Amino acid sequence: MINVTIWNEGRHEKESESVAAVYPKGIHNCIADFLGTDEELNVRTAVLDDPDNGLPDDVLNSTDVLLWWGHMAHECVPDELVEKVYNRVMCGMGFIALHSAHFSKPFKRLMGTTCSLKWRDGDRERLWCINPSHPIAKGVPESFDIPVEEMYGERFDIPAPDETVFIGWFKGGEVFRSGNCWYRGLGKVFYFQPGHEENPTYYIPEVQKIIHNAVYWAAPEKIVGEIECPWVEAPEKHYDGPNK
Amino acid sequence: MINVTIWNEGRHEKESESVAAVYPKGIHNCIADFLGTDEELNVRTAVLDDPDNGLPDDVLNSTDVLLWWGHMAHECVPDELVEKVYNRVMCGMGFIALHSAHFSKPFKRLMGTTCSLKWRDGDRERLWCINPSHPIAKGVPESFDIPVEEMYGERFDIPAPDETVFIGWFKGGEVFRSGNCWYRGLGKVFYFQPGHEENPTYYIPEVQKIIHNAVYWAAPEKIVGEIECPWVEAPEKHYDGPNK
Amino acid sequence: MINVTIWNEGRHEKESESVAAVYPKGIHNCIADFLGTDEELNVRTAVLDDPDNGLPDDVLNSTDVLLWWGHMAHECVPDELVEKVYNRVMCGMGFIALHSAHFSKPFKRLMGTTCSLKWRDGDRERLWCINPSHPIAKGVPESFDIPVEEMYGERFDIPAPDETVFIGWFKGGEVFRSGNCWYRGLGKVFYFQPGHEENPTYYIPEVQKIIHNAVYWAAPEKIVGEIECPWVEAPEKHYDGPNK
Amino acid sequence: MINVTIWNEGRHEKESESVAAVYPKGIHNCIADFLGTDEELNVRTAVLDDPDNGLPDDVLNSTDVLLWWGHMAHECVPDELVEKVYNRVMCGMGFIALHSAHFSKPFKRLMGTTCSLKWRDGDRERLWCINPSHPIAKGVPESFDIPVEEMYGERFDIPAPDETVFIGWFKGGEVFRSGNCWYRGLGKVFYFQPGHEENPTYYIPEVQKIIHNAVYWAAPEKIVGEIECPWVEAPEKHYDGPNK
Question: Could you give the number of structural domains in chain C?
């Protein structure tokens, strides 16, 4: 059983009628709906405006994989919470950053770069899989179209991914590393570009498949309690200092 | 001409007679002495207890490659300065973290991991070059010994390096990825493990050669003013939205 | 069910009494014994001196993961068979090269480098895990000793591994990237350094655990029939050539 | 002074009037013309139908960087010559594979994968630089257009590049990793996708700039005589076998 928490900023859905029309229960519940059909996943949701911003210690400390969607209110996430999320990734938790979460505090904290990019709303995207034997590509066709999606274009200012799985093509003329994996601490991090709040992207079966696969990929074998920096005795028994 | 700034915490030298005996002018000046013989390098030094912690804006903003040595006073470096250093790396500045700077704020900020490790003072190290055609290995033998050095042992909690150049062997029984390169933003980052304050490591010719090479490797072609995240028009002239 | 074939040169065991004393049924059967206890694995063995060198088409074409041990008779493996092994890796088969198989024809074919190294028989090795959350490290301690093993030392002339899991420390003074992963074609490749024919290395529980884990890691989701290089129509429906 | 040899198959130019119209002196001489203006480069050309296929030992053994263009006659390159080219890359020579040389024998030998891809002639390409601080990107704009170029599309079956510098966008709907770097042996390998024989791609200033930069990037510090696999004495003086 994998404990999955889907965190959503949840503000656009409250403030914009057009967004609410696309995701009437919020982006988090749309994702919860399709992940929730898998009985191996224990799915919870949380939003920014919940108590403790949706992630009190008991929730975070029982999460194996955390999904994160944010956009207009990145700055409202307390730095203290960001450090807690970061520390849990160090200890093994998986972290999946969705779309505009490229600029979220936890993702930038984990990358150590600006995560900037080019953007333009309202383009057509075709996602190409360049790594078909990767676990996140399981059952995903070599390419599929997203009729309307926000264009995110290179240069995407990220550390070179440990694995790039998808590259996006945009009709307007750009390309983007759209699905990328990194190993950070004992945890795994996946970034997936599609998912603008105004577009019904999370209803697309291939997108759902990718996010589902990513949850399994990011799930840890175990999560440790703490990363230490210990003084250690020499494993060599007869060690007697450097000059012998 | 490459503008090099050697930043040193500089506290051990003031507080410990035995350290002062090894580096009477401070670690920074020992490094400045051997780098300064190269007329292509414009070398400055700075210490924590200088005004503005040694890095007022005009110094930082005219630095191409910043070397960083710190240990006992990591927490005394203001977060504001850390952000400035980080931002300049994003814009292209090279950053070389030396020894105990694995736990310095700027290095941890750039890595996005804990940078923890195992340690024990007073071991003998042999550095092996596993990447002999790398620019930082130029003129460096396939291995050389450091008679007494602090043991740093795996697991070193860093992102998988973009390039590993040196692996350290310790007599007491450990190994360590001792010379590692990362590309972050438009800047280059090198970490080099040898250099404990109580040992005369920075007087060793091979160590000097490696640091000298690293300065050239990390030097940027140019440093940009800012990393933006711009809205852009479609480069395709006849682009007229996603549905056409 | 994963179809595992353990291929062994099998010559040392026949020609040397001391080797036969360590592996009376051959290295392949020692490995088959510990893998065979897992009912999810369908384990077969093959040796160089079997008909078709142990790998007739029907065996190779029903193998999901191929383990390879060779040393004194690398040149006796026909080039034609090497191409068949290589092609099946391209199509998804896992390939695990053991110890002196660093110089086997299939491994060199897959690496595209010389795979040379330094060596000396009869040293003590300590294996350090530098990637504890990697699937191949599951259940493996952070380090363990091999009382007597052939020293393999850097520089190991391999492409930079996609993932390095283990680094070996040798009492005599060397280090080695001892457990390395590469993605090649649709297949996965793992190299594991311990396993000299004169030493009872394959009886060590940690070594068995690592090889067992590696079989699961290398097992493909599926194996395709062929890798093509197809002419394709433009996916864009209204595409009408470059000048419009 | 860098010794550059531009090897071209040179058959299309002889057999097709339309190709000869684009490159009247052959692709090799077009490239030699723009590289030859740099006095630091000692540029030679060679074609398949020259004696010794253009690469007698004295030429190959005095080449620092070898450029390779081939397409219709890959099979006419003798395996013996391929091994010589491969060996020289192992010893440090740079190798730049152009366009259809993705299927050339030396490139496939160095990659260890099929190097297959999708293709279609006659598309419009836009090259995006995703690594602007890379030496090969020096002075190259963030994107530029190639009015007519052969489409090469993913999945490109290559080992994950050590560095990806350019990604191509095609009007017809595909993407491609168009400029990739690998470190192999002591040598450096660059693959650059644009350059179909029917299109005047090598006259484009940005393309010339990239190839020029790549020559400098691939040029070795030195080229060694041979890669050995030596028995070595233990560097530890008091080493007396594994059991002490």
Answer: 1
- Residue C244 pLDDT more than 60? no
Work out the angle between the directed axes of helices A27-35 and A205-218 (0-180°, nearest 10).
Answer: 80
Contact D227 C116 (CB under 8 A): yes
Q: Can you list the positions of beta strands (E) in C84-142?
A: 94-98, 118-129
pLDDT of residue D239: 75
Provide the CATH number for the domain around residue D194. Answer: 3.40.50.880
DSSP, res D113: S
A8 Cβ partners below 8 Å, 6+ apart? Answer: A26, A27, A28, A45, A46, A47, A48, A69, A70
- Residue C125, in any domain of the structure: no
pLDDT digits (tens, 9 = 90+) for A41-81: 999 999 999 999 999 999 999 999 999 999 999 999 999 99
**pLDDT of the residue at A240:** 72
So what's the pLDDT on residue C243? 62
Q: Kindly identify which residue of chain A lies nearest to residue D168, measuring between CA atoms.
A: A175
CB-closest option in D147, D229, D241 to C116: D229
Residues of C in contact with D124 (CB under 8 A): 242-243
Tens-place pLDDT, residues C89-142: 999 999 999 999 999 999 999 999 999 999 998 899 999 999 999 999 999 999
Lowest mean pLDDT among A104-113, D52-61, D225-234: D225-234
User: Token pair for residue A125?
Assistant: 């995207």
Write out the two tokens for A105.
Answer: 């505090």
Decide if C242 and D114 are in contact by the 8 Å CB cutoff.
no
In a domain, A164, yes or no: no
Q: Which of D85, D107, D184 to mutate to test the interface with C (most CBs of C within 10 A)?
A: D184
- Radius of gyration over alpha carbons of chain A, in Å? 19
Would A244 be classed as within a structural domain? no
Which residues are within 8 A (CB) of C51 and not within 5 positions of it... i.e. 6 or more apart? none
Instruction: Name the closest residue on chain B to residue D221, using Cα atoms.
Output: B133
Q: Read off the pLDDT of residues C145-178 as tens digits, 9 standing for 90 and up.
A: 999 999 999 999 999 999 999 999 999 999 999 9
Q: Which of C60, C127, C51, C48 is CA-nearest to residue C95?
A: C60
Mean pLDDT value across chain D? 96
Which of A122, A184, A239 faces B171 most closely, judged by CB atoms? A239
Mean pLDDT calculated for residue range D54-59: 98
Nearest CA distance, D82 vs chain C (angstrom): 12
Tell me which residues of chain B have a pLDDT lower than 70: 238, 243-244
Choosing among A130, A146, A163, which should be mutated to test the D contact, i.e. which has the most D CBs within 10 A?
Answer: A130
List alpha helices for chain A, DSSP H.
12-15, 17-22, 27-35, 57-60, 79-90, 105-111, 205-218
Order of all β-strands in the sheet with A65-69: A41-47, A2-8, A65-69, A94-98, A187-192, A175-184, A163-170, A118-129, A143-153
CB contact under 8 Å between B138 and D187, yes or no, is no
The range of the structural domain enclosing residue D78 comes to 2-111+178-218
Overall size of chain A counted in residues: 244
> Chain D partners of A129 at a C-beta cutoff of 8 Å?
154-155
Residue D94 lies in a domain: yes
CA C218, distance to chain mean position in Å, is: 9
Q: What is the CA angle B170-B171-B173, rounded to 5?
A: 75
Collect all residues of chain D within an 8 Å Cβ-Cβ radius of residue C237. Answer: none
- Inspect the interface and report whether the beta carbons of A133 and C235 lie closer than 8 Å: no
Contact D164, D134 (CB under 8 A): no
Return the residue matching tokens 């070389």. B96
ipTM, two decimals: 0.95
C243 to D124: CB separation less than 8 angstroms, yes or no: yes
Quickly state the pLDDT bin for C217 (edges 50, 70, 90).
very high
Q: Which residues of B touch C169 (CB under 8 A)?
A: 169-170, 173-175
* Residues on chain D touching C113 (C-beta within 8 angstroms): 90, 184-185
